[in-house]
Amino acid sequence: MTAVQTSPEQHGDASDAARQEQFPAGAQVLVRDEVWLVRNAVPTTDDGTRVEVVGVSDFVRDQEAVFFTGLDTVELIDPRDTRLIADDSPTYRRSRLFLEAVLRRTALPQSERRLALADSFLLDSLPYQRRPAELALSGANLRPRLLIADVVGLGKTLEIGLTLAELIRRGRGERILVVTPQHVLEQFQHELWTRCAIPLVRLDSVGIERIQREIPAGRNPFTFFKRVIVSIDTLKNTDQYRHHLEQIRWDAVVIDESHNLINRGSLRNQLAQTLAPRTDALILASATPHNGDARSFAELIALLDPAAIRDPENYRAEDIEHLFIRRTKVSTEVREQMKGQWADRGPSQAVHCPATPAEERIFEELAAVWLPRDSSPSVSSVPLFPYTLLKSFLSSHAALKATVNARIKTLEKKDDPRATAAELAALRRLADLTADLKEADSAKFAALVEQLKGIGVGPSSDTRVVVFSERVQTLEWLATILPAALGFRGRTAKDCLRVMHGGLSDEQQMRVVEEFGLAGAPVRILLTGDVASEGVNLHRQCHQLVHYDVPWSLIRIEQRNGRIDRYGQAQPPQFRALILTSGTEGAKDDTLVSERLLEREDQAHRSLGTAEAVTGLYRAEAEEKSLIQDLLRGRTVDESLDGRRSGEDAGTDAMDDFLADFFGAVGDEPQAEDGTAAEESAPETAGGATGTGEGTGSVLPRLFDSTAHFLDEALREVYPDARDRLDLDRDEQSGLLSFRPPADLLHRLKALPVDYLREQRLRERLLVTFNRRLAQHSLQRAREAGSTSSWPEISLLTDLHPVVEWLTDKVLVRLGRQEAPMITAEVAEPTYLVQGVYSNALGRPTVVKWMGVTRSGAVDDDMVSLLRRSGVGPTMANKLRHRDPAPLAAAIPAVLEAAEGFMEQRRDAWDRPLRETIERHKLRLGDWEQPTLAGEHTKRRLTDLADDLLTTGQRPMLRVLAVLLPDLDAPPASSSSPSATPAAL
User: Fold this and answer.
1) Residue 175: left (phi > 0), alpha (psi -120 to 50), or beta?
2) What is the predicted pLDDT for the residue at 26?
3) Most CB atoms within 10 A, among 353, 615, 649, 695?
């Protein structure tokens, strides 16, 4: 495994040395007199190239290290000094494994825009979920950056996982940071590992402090792990972590629920502004990315591409179509692909609850004093406060009592008794009316118990339900009385119910969500506030949801419903809302607002797929505030909702026209730079493949017909005594592999989630399989009755799985320094297998060619096809015949010269599509004018980035991999005969 590169001095510009160094993944380098295997290499501004390696030679074997070429001499080995060696393994297994490992460890070139791994994960084959990854790789943007704005429930986490996987395969996903709300940390981590084999180490504030205690003083805690997931509530503490974040660069950053980043000056916004310029790929995800303000949304888009929008007050959807993708459940592609895989939701059922006498007395007081029907003024000097009282009461008497007491304390602090006397008197009357109320006085509570019993919630049933309320006081009150009312007694009364709200820690919230998703857990009822209305999966064991009170926002209702109405839901989701009704004249009960909002949300969901665009406000808080103001003006709910869309409110027309684009056809088809669909315009790549690559075969060059066959052969080669050394057990029928991980694999397993390692005891034994059905069954079983962990005991082996990567590296180091095997095959003359790589200034490959080169200078640029035609495969015979390597080694310099000439001759054609794309980006940058120094700096930075993506001017990096030799016992035959029978490798 050898390489050659041109030194910087040969180019006459030693100052660019760091930018010209090439250390491709899979190459061997010599550092400090030891041999290392390159995993990744990234140029730095001060210390040359940062080279991540793993030890090969005996003294450092399997040790991980990082070297900087400005501090250490990192020597790539000259291929002209390659030693050709015999391979004595049966069927040339060692050589075939070595070639396959090189192919696997070589990053896909920048020109390869098709998906390579989409078919290999534990996912349903849904093309709509692949399209974000296709957009990220399409070349439509300088960097893989996009906003995934699919509505609630379509599987944004899985779409993110697919995108990250493709970046990893391209060498652009070594360092990953995922930032999510605290209550979905474990859920996100779980999905990326179990579905896509991407391990993330979860860090909270306690975890970061623990790392800081373990590492040397002053070291950056975020360098301790390569791929981490952190709560935004932890990371937004910029005073504590900002200096660390400013000193580190990421390959990819993911920010979930990114609509929370919009408010300029907020801690979340400051965090995003810190991270965005320090990462190559940036993926933002939000089902509600708009707040109704064009400038705010432009600031969100500017995190992805500062030059995408010229005028933040005036832009259209087509200005950002290279950065933005959005689909709803009724989008054509989603609707067609999801048939039979996502149960349709049932209607939102309004359950009328006639007020009890005690509640009617409160309605009478509110109607007479606080919200009079005639033109009489309210007793409160604050116009919105009477509706705060009303909403508290419509939630529960416990919530009303808390609101009344808080207002009394506020008024008593004011030094103006005359101004506050009337309101204080009215508040004290309400306090007296609520003082002695019990559950028997609550019509909603009686209805809730009746409804829950009706759907089967009880001690002898597994039925589960989510009950939402806006008020913490309501949740806590229900928690004390609901279990007994449903017949739960003793310990089961405590175990059957969990409460979740924003006052809980991230660990407490994650524990509640995980427990509710386990079939074996005793919890049956989840009482939750709207903290669970964003991003949380509650559909695994539940399809029943009750709104104890109804938020006065269509967006919030939709978000709540989306917790159980989402991809993977097997049962039709059922929604109920408790509607408190009153016979008091002029009373503003739930039929005034809540019931009508339920109907409008259901209508919008069925016709549009989302309720976000109905009001044109795009934020739950803004919707509620606007509705209350309209109610104060005497408007009905329908007049309020329809007024903005019809333009009755000044200034809404332009905004509605602007935002309507984002709920239309944006992202319907992935577009190439020329406006055609990406698949239609896919050029021949510099990797030598064409076509749309629906599967992975045409994208990834492979010698073995599957990863399973590669791993099987690799185990036999590396561990011929695996049954003893690894305690390996193989179930041939199911495909299950069980073994004890050796020390070097244990070191890699540190990247796996800590809970997963502990709960499944992975340090003692690993259970892995290529059987997708078995892995899916294990994942499902982890959620079923009797399971105490949501982590599956069996994981699916994929190209990204640590076990596969471990064996790949073990195979690579089976050959010594500067060694390449000689293989007897069906060729007419010695044919040298050579890899050629052109890279850009960032060290990423722009062109990767796999060639077969003869001593006469003939070049075949499809090494995989050449090997198949030459009969190199598992059935070939190794006759162990000695061949003199000296004359073959003498020809290597001429072979390398022929390979370089072949690449230089075609370089311009390979570069042209990339060059044209970069030029279009630079033209757009030229048109982007910003009248500030910061804007000009950004423009220069983006222009430099565009230049850095182009292939550098240096010669290709070449590696001699092996030599195919004619079989001296075989009759003469043409090695390139098209009729030769391909061999399955």
Assistant:
1) beta
2) 66
3) 615
Read off the tokens for 265: 């000056």
How far is residue 262's CA from residue 268's CA, in Å, rounded to a whole number?
8
Task: Flag whether pLDDT at 672 surpasses 80.
Answer: no
Instruction: Please give the DSSP secondary-structure letter assigned to residue 741.
Output: P
Burial category of 214 from C-beta neighbours within 10 Å (exposed 0-12, middle 13-18, buried 19 and up): exposed
Mean local confidence (pLDDT), 916-927: 82
Q: Are 309 and 634 in contact (CB under 8 A)?
A: no
DSSP 29-93: EEETTEEEEEEEEEE-SSSSEEEEEEE-SGGGTT-EEEEETTTS--EEPPGGGPEEEE--SGGGH
Give me the long-range contacts of 668-675 (CB less than 8 A, separation at least 24).
668/331, 668/332, 668/333, 670/131, 670/134, 670/135, 670/138, 671/138, 671/140, 671/321, 671/322, 672/138, 672/139, 672/140, 673/139, 673/140, 673/916, 673/917, 673/920
Ramachandran angles phi, psi of 681, nearest 5°: -100, 5
Nearest to 602 by CA among 634, 557, 633: 557
Could you say which DSSP state residue 367 is in? Answer: I
The pLDDT score that the predictor gives to residue 353 is: 97
Residues 6+ apart with CB under 8 A from 732: none
Distance, C-alpha 60 to centroid of its chain: 35
What average pLDDT is seen over the chain? 85
* DSSP 3-state of 890: helix
Flag whether pLDDT at 975 surpasses 70: no
824 touches 967 (CB < 8 A):
yes
pLDDT of residue 366: 95
Cα→Cα distances 145→66, 254, 661, Å: 28, 10, 20
Residue with the larger pLDDT of the pair 172 and 22: 172
pTM value? 0.81
Q: What is the pLDDT of residues 262-314, one digit of tens each?
A: 777 788 888 999 999 999 999 999 988 877 677 888 888 999 998 888 888 88
Three-state SS at 684? coil
Predicted confidence (pLDDT) per residue in 224-246, tens digit: 888 999 988 888 876 778 888 88
Name the 3-class secondary structure at 10.
helix
Going by pLDDT thresholds of 50, 70 and 90, the confidence category of residue 183 is confident
- β-strands 176-180, 227-231: how paired? parallel
Report DSSP state, residue 579.
Answer: E
Q: Who's near 340: CB < 8 A, 6+ residues apart?
A: none
- Residue the block writes with tokens 């001296």: 968
Question: 124: burial class by Cβ within 10 Å (0-12, 13-18, 19+)?
Answer: middle
In one letter, which amino acid is 123? Answer: L
